[in-house]
Amino acid sequence: MRLTEITDFEAPELDVYARLTEAQLLNRFEPKKGMFIAESPKVILRALDAGCRPVSLLAERNHINDEAREAIGRCGDVPVYTAELEILTKLTGFQLTRGMLCAMYRPRLPSLEEVTAGARRVTVLENVQNPTNVGAIFRSAAALGMDAVLLTRGCSDPLYRRSCRVSMGTVFQVPWTYLEEDWLRDLRAMGFRTAAMALSDDSVSIADPALAAEEKLAVVLGSEGDGLAPSTIARCDYTVRIPMAHGVDSLNVAAASAVAFWELRAR
Fold first, then answer.
1. Cβ contacts of residue 191 below 8 Å, gap of 6+?
2. Mind listing the pLDDT tens digit for each residue in 76-114?
3. DSSP string, the chain
4. Is 231 left (phi over 0), alpha (psi -120 to 50) or beta?
5. What is the pLDDT at residue 4?
6. Which residues, in sequence order, are CB contacts of 166 under 8 Å at separation 6+?
7. What are the tens digits of pLDDT across the range 176-192?
């Protein structure tokens, strides 16, 4: 391994880890140069499996174990910067999970048609802004049979560091893309029926057999505070609720997603 000990905090090659925000890394004006940060060897390995190209690595020396060595080895000849945990924490502003970060170029964003090809169950996230929730939803989607995750432009970026980490790298395994403005029309044209997860007097139970019988179904989840927009609920084919007990009115969107994905999975 070609390790470079960090001696200069101001070195420009460390900007990606220490001084550029995730919004700046996104590089909206030159998307092909856009980058993201993958955290932990497992996430890095899954990103590499998906074809993401590494730029450099930042590793705590004491965490260069077998899994970390595999990640470093698979990154080829990119620079590997290293230091003790205290120095890395001071540099990045947070404590690294399992001691490793990797700067990578963002992969090409596929089209809606590409990610839904052959799909029977997809989920739509409308303005879900918390990176932790986005990551947790991806993990549930991967584990519980969703074929794709579709996001409105108001959602947190699935490739933000925290989203990637919370998802355990499943953001690189489940196909995803952003939706255009009239996404309900687009999904309907592809043969999907839509199920809005919302509290409403005319909602049906998530256990309704008609939902499970749908050949192609999109499970639509809303933002953490306000839920789905009324206009979205009105245009969906179903309004669906998860039955609650003990006076609890709703679940966190990430928890609700796991219940919905399991109950509405393709059979």
1. 215, 216
2. 999 999 888 788 888 888 777 668 899 999 999 999 999
3. --EEE---TT-GGGHHHHT--HHHHH-TTSGGG-EEEEESHHHHHHHHHTTPPEEEEEEEGGG--HHHHHHHHHTTT--EEEE-HHHHHHHHSSPPGGGEEEEEEPPPPPPHHHHHTT-SEEEEESS---HHHHHHHHHHHHHTT-SEEEE-TTSPPTTSHHHHHHTTTGGGTS-EEE--TTHHHHHHHTT-EEEEE---TT-EETT-HHHHH-SSEEEEE-BTTTBS-HHHHHHSSEEEE----TT-----HHHHHHHHHHHT---
4. alpha
5. 86
6. 131, 132, 134, 135, 136, 139
7. 999 999 999 999 999 99
> What whole-number distance in Å separates Cα of residue 106 and Cα of residue 135?
17
Please give the average per-residue pLDDT across 44-69, as a whole number: 89
Nearest one of 17, 76, 25 to 48, comparing CA atoms:
76
* Mean pLDDT across 219-247: 93
What is the rounded distance in angstroms from the CA atom of residue 183 to the CA atom of residue 185? 5
176, 148 contact by CB (below 8 A): yes
d(Cα 135, Cα 158) in Å, to the nearest integer? 7
- Please check whether residue 40 is in contact with residue 60, taking contact to mean a CB–CB distance below 8 angstroms: no
